[in-house]
Amino acid sequence: MRMIGNLDFDIYFLVLVGGYGMVLWLVDSYKYKNEKQEALEKKAKTIGITTMSIAALLFLTQIFLR
Prior knowledge:
This protein is mostly helical and about 70 residues long. It has helices at about 10-30, 40-65; strands at about 5, 5-10.
């Protein structure tokens, strides 16, 4: 695994991917909540769930590779 200082690069990537998914999910769901556009909320939830799933898989593979 590549190292940056004392922290693994994978931890940074995990936080970035998970944070990006959560930010997209929250911003899209709050932004269009009053307009009741269900298609955009479904898209935001799909993006959020997908990125969080990728982050969880990266975390589990990082645990098993140690």
